[in-house]
Amino acid sequence: MLESALIKLDFPLFSSHPDLVYLDSAATSQKPQVVLNALLDFYTHSNANVHRGIYELSEVASGLYEQARARVARFLGATSAQEIVFTSGTTAALNLVAYSYGSQVLHEGDEILVADFEHHSSLLPWQRVAAQTGAVLRMVTSDDNGQIALDVWKNSITAATKVVVVAHASNVLGTITDIRSLADLVHRVGAVLVVDGAQAAPHLAVDVHTLDCDFYAMSAHKMLGPMGVGALYTKSALLEKMVPYQVGGGMIEEVTATTATFATGPAKFEAGTPPVAEAIAWVAALDYLEAVGLEAIRQHEVALSEFLLAELQTIKGLRILGPKQASQRTGLVSVAVEGVHAHDLADYLSREQIAVRAGFHCAMPLHHNQHCGATLRASYYLYNDKQDLVRFIDQLHKAINYYG
Ligand SMILES: Cc1ncc(COP(=O)(O)O)c(C=O)c1O
Questions:
Q1: Third-level CATH fold of 35-289
Q2: Handedness of CA 51, 55, 61, 67 (dihedral sign)
Q3: 192 CA to middle of ligand 1, Å?
């Protein structure tokens, strides 16, 4: 396992909250000092807008911003930086696919398939695009184990399927989807695969080439980086087909009073001032993650999940959502406790300095399909250790006794 106690020292928030047990990294991760330094460094030494000025400082800022794009491309295994569009996060990236790609290619009767464990950010844009284009949105339902078998996907994909949308890892179930196998099925009918990587990119080594997905969305703030920046990876051939759904400064070639032509490549989708400092500081986060090692982080989280799942299974009246095998999930577990509302549990835990999330986690259809109300989610990362989970379990027992 990782030396989490040492890793914690790199995260200043834990020094200002020494008693905190932070189990809400799926909502946002904490940030190491190197990321905070990178933000301060940019504003102290290199602050200027990008791709606008011809003075030296602007060229420095533009250079750093483009280097960040190349770094994100390398992290994801993309062929070129030109396949990476910076966005404000996963939500913006998924909206970009829906409006700039989906609304261009979909027609009446075409099918959009979405997994039932999609985050609302991955579902709602397609609801709109379906309404606008006349395409049909169909939901593929996960089983009691929180998984969708490949055969179920296979039987759901038809000749009418044009877009398939899936989370690489579910933010409620932790379920990891076999993207490569699904991509093969999707491509067989000439459809595209849109992957929401918000909960996977922070925890798994992602290589978009191996996965062969067409779009991959992620947020920096869930992977040690700043809030306000994320990225959409798109295969270059598809990027060229897409039409910007936001227009404005910084993305044009020529503008007259009544017409405009647009820049090529990712710039076309980055109207307005982008999150420059955040993109540059994200590099420090990616460097940090790779220095620790994605594989080591994965092993660490699997070990924590094994421990937590075993402990939770001993609690009477507690239901674990998603797969029971640690190896089949990322570092989070959501539970429902019979007769006790998840908000009450989270409130009790908060008073004991334990930060967990309660509610529907922006996945209402999933909770409905899994026949449960609000759930309590504990999510952990490289800076959490077994001790954090022991405190969580101890206090969870007390909370259940108190309310039960
Ligand atoms: C699976 C998943 N998709 C999308 C999002 C939205 O990410 P963001 O709020 O960074 O845009 C989240 C956030 O929790 C998520 O967990």
A1: Aspartate Aminotransferase; domain 2 (3.40.640)
A2: positive
A3: 21
| Chain centre to alpha carbon of residue 102 | 20
Ligand 1 center–CA 176 separation, angstroms: 15
**Ligand 1 atom at shortest distance from the alpha carbon of 167:** 1
CA 221 – ligand 1 centroid, Å: 10
**Per-residue tokens: 93:** 């990236």
91 lines ligand 1 (CB under 6 A): yes
Nearest CA-CA partner of 157 in 130, 123, 190: 190
Q: Is the CB of 196 under 6 A from ligand 1?
A: yes
Which residue blocks in 293-363 are alpha helix, DSSP H?
294-312, 342-351
Class of domain 4-23+294-403: alpha beta
Average pLDDT, consecutive stretches of 10 residues, N- to C-terminus, the chain (404 residues): 96 98 98 98 97 90 98 98 98 98 97 98 98 98 96 98 98 98 98 98 98 98 98 96 92 92 93 97 98 98 98 97 96 97 98 97 94 96 98 98 91
The boundaries of every CATH 3.90.1150.10 domain in the chain are 4-23+294-403
Model-wide pTM > 0.85:
yes
Nearest CA to ligand 1 atom 16: 171
